[in-house]
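Schema walk-through. Below, the input block comes first and the output block second. Nothing else is stored per chain. Lengths vary across the set, and this one has 315 residues.
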Amino acid sequence: MGKPKRRDKRKKAKPMSGKAGPKMGLAWTRLWAKSQGGHPNYGLDNPSLAFARRAVGMALSASKNKRLVDIGAGRGEITSPILRVGGHVTLVDPAKVSALSQKMPFERITAYAEKLPREWTGKFGTALLAYSLSYARKNKRQALAEVRRVLDDNGRLIALIHHPKSIYLRDSKLGEQVGKATLRLLEGVRRKRIKTYKAAVKELGKIAEMTGASQTNIELVNRFLHSYFEGKKSDMKAGIRAKFWDQKIKENIERVKIQEASFGPLHEPGNLFPNKGAVRGFFENNGFRVRFLRELKKGDDIYCYAVYAQKKGGK
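--- output ---
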């Protein structure tokens, strides 16, 4: 018999996106699985959606290379219309979700922007980063270097960048506060520290007063709590086990946790660009020439920084 093999105690290399990488992909996979259809932020009246589609169309028209890579694509809401005008779209996202339209010939891979397939070097004429760069966090330069690598010598980049004063950040920050408070409330109900609907509603009122949460959000939680307590009481009177209602409350707790994991990185200190100068400097110093840069607004609401850039100096 040979000598027993020694156990290799060396640490395995961490994924490119750091410790939170796999967790982020899993959180978004779960979030997409619970959503119906497309992303709620991509409504028809969203100026960033209109800009991205128009800019992508312009980039593809100006390029002989009609291949587009959509990084952080989700279900492909932004780029799905491109196929109708003859483009070839590759969707990249860490979340394992299906494309919005199964009838269109999307190529799709599960990956992070920081580590795209090696064989993609120079493959694409256009790249889209729609609200995805901020999730690379400290690896933004690495992510942009990978985007530059997969573009051909005349490659164009369209980017929607999270703005620190955007309605998304405002709403997600409020959502984070409401989510944490709601989580404590639901945990209290699940662990039977809060035993009646009346007591739960009292706690819900405190949440509304403390966070300024919208009446719609409060009403949604209120309806669930009413269904939970009344339904559980009714089932127990009828001799039916209350496991169904316990499972429902666990599902609601899970939903809140997923939301926090998905949007939490946007609120990390230093993760967002403070102004247009910082955005321009980042792209110009990392191999791109910025052709267009603007804060996209609708009325007083800021949506994002919009960037249209071209790859500098070939390879």
